[in-house]
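Q: Please design a sequence for this.
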C-alpha cells in the first residue's frame, strides 16, 4: 500500500516518505523515544532503495524530529526538557525533576594555563594552572549537553578522578572539599552546531545549540568552576530562575 503511493505524481519519493513519517510523529503514531524500523525495513515498506530512505531520515533529522545513535539506529526525538538555572543549578537534580536518569562521562581531562579571559572568570592570574574537563551529559542515555569546565589547581587536582568515579559534579566537588556552592553568573546564547558538535550530541549538522557560560563559587564567594556548555536546543529549554 505505501509503496504504491510513491509513484507517478512528480514528487520525489524521499520527500513523500519524510512527510509521511513526520505526520506519524506529529500525530503520535510514533511516540518520543520510539526506535524507527531499519533503513532496509523502511525501504521494503515504501518500495524504494535505502539511499532514498536515508535522505528522508536526513530531512527529519534536520528538522529535529529524529536522531541517529551510531550503532543503535534512528529514534524519534524526546520531548524538550526544562532545565532551570538559578542560584543552585544541579544537572542531576534537574534531570530527576524531569523524570530522566542523568548521565555524565569524561571525554578529556588535561592541565592547561588560564588565558586572560578564563583567568578573569576564575579570579586568578593569567597563566595559572587549571584543570580542563571535557564532559558529555545525558538524560536517559540521550546526549543533552557537552562542553568544557575549568577548575583552579592545585585545589581541584583530584576532581577528574572523583567525577569519573561518582559521575556527577556535586559529589565530585564534595570529594575535593566543597560541600556546597552557588551559581554566580550565567550567560546564555545560541548558534548552530558544527560537524564535531553535532556528532557529539547525535543531532544534524547546523541544528541550533544553546550556549551556556557559567561561573560557580563556593560559599566564601571564591570562584571554583567556569563552564562553557552546549545544549541541544531541540531537547532542552533553559528556564532562568530569579
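A: Design:
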Amino acid at each position: 500500500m505505501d509503496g504504491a503511493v510513491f509513484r507517478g505524481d512528480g514528487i520525489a519519493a524521499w520527500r513523500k516518505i519524510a512527510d509521511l513519517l513526520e505526520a506519524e510523529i506529529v500525530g503520535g503514531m510514533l511516540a518520543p523515544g520510539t526506535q524507527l524500523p531499519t533503513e532496509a525495513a523502511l525501504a521494503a515498506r515504501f518500495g524504494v532503495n535505502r539511499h532514498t530512505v536515508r535522505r528522508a531520515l536526513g530531512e527529519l533529522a534536520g528538522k529535529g524530529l529524529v536522531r541517529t545513535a551510531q550503532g543503535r539506529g534512528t529514534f524519534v526525538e524526546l520531548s524538550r526538557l526544562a532545565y532551570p538555572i538559578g542560584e543552585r543549578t544541579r544537572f542531576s537534580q534537574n534531570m530527576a525533576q524531569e523524570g530522566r536518569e542523568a548521565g555524565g562521562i569524561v571525554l578529556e581531562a588535561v592541565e592547561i594555563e588560564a588565558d586572560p579571559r578564563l583567568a578573569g572568570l576564575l579570579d586568578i592570574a593569567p597563566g595559572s594552572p587549571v584543570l580542563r574537563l571535557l564532559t558529555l551529559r545525558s538524560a536517559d542515555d540521550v546526549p543533552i549537553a557537552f562542553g568544557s569546565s575549568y577548575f583552579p589547581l592545585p585545589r581541584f587536582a583530584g576532581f577528574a578522578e572523583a567525577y569519573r568515579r561518582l559521575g556527577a559534579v556535586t559529589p565530585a566537588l564534595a570529594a575535593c572539599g566543597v560541600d556546597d556552592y552557588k551559581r554566580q553568573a550565567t550567560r546564555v546564547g545560541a548558534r548552530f552546531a558544527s560537524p564535531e558538535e553535532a556528532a557529539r550530541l547525535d543531532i544534524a549538522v547546523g541544528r541550533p545549540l544553546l550556549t551556556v557560560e557559567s561561573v560557580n563559587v563556593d560559599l566564601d564567594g571564591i570562584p571554583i568552576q567556569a563552564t562553557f556548555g552546549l545544549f541541544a536546543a531541540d531537547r532542552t529549554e533553559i528556564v532562568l530562575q530569579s
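Q: Thanks. Anything notable?
A: The CA atoms of residues 2 and 20 lie 10 Å apart. Residues 2-76 form a domain with the Arc Repressor Mutant, subunit A fold (CATH 1.10.10.10).
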